[in-house]
Known about the structure:
The complex is a heterodimer. Helices cover 0% and strands 53% of the residues of chain A. Chain A is an all-beta fold. In chain A, strands 2, 4, 5, 6, 9, 10 and 11 form a seven-stranded mixed β-sheet that branches. In chain A, a hairpin with a 2-residue loop joins strand 5 and strand 6 (53-56). Chain B is built from no helices and eleven strands. The model of chain B has no long low-confidence stretch (mean pLDDT 90). The termini of chain B are far apart. Chain B is 0% helix and 58% strand. In chain B, strand 4 (30-38) and strand 5 form a beta hairpin. In chain B, strands 2, 4, 5, 9, 10 and 11 form a six-stranded mixed β-sheet that branches. In chain B, strands 1-3-8-7-6 form a five-stranded antiparallel β-sheet, with no helix packed on it. Chains A and B meet through strand 5 and strand 10 of A and strand 4, strand 5 and strand 9 of B.
Amino acid sequence: DAGVIQSPRHEVTEMGQEVTLRCKPISGHNSLFWYRQTMMRGLELLIYFNNNVPIDDSGMPEDRFSAKMPNASFSTLKIQPSEPRDSAVYFCASSFGAYRGRSPLHFGNGTRLTVT
Amino acid sequence: KQEVTQIPAALSVPEGENLVLNCSFTDSAIYNLQWFRQDPGKGLTSLLLIQSSQREQTSGRLNASLDKSSGRSTLYIAASQPGDSATYLCAGNTQGGSEKLVFGKGTKLTVNP
């Protein structure tokens, strides 16, 4: 199994530009999570999908952030317009089952976003 | 609001030493708890999962325990090796149905040969 695949690995963009991060979860997993990691705040959950449906997006910081999961094998996180404070490492993770922490969470290698 | 504290923030030990990493939750009603390892530039790898009906889990040289009465967990690493050098994070969700795993900021471990 290739694991959770994220692209791109690195993204450098200018303030105001649109950024799209992509994620392919592990085949057969039906829960998908987007996290953001910074030195100051650590890992923060942005949004959680179960069976392609957004269940909890209370961690999405602003309306500039949006996430979609059009099918079981693909999800995107979009930031429009991007700001320097959005600079962070964004992780996608997946697991099997209606997640209540019962099954291990599998993380991708992340996308390091730098907004100048 | 659930907060997670990991102590120490960093730890440097000589190879072969046994060590303990600590994790505590402000809300002790932990439902499930996971310990993760993060290598530089990488995502997190799940090491051990303690489910709601369990108190500890073991995998090789690693042992994790959870004291639900105090909301504290420990990760014990036996006979540490340089390859164990990484950041270790704990995460838990609370009883009551929260889907969110709340993460600590991690303990950065360096094992010196």
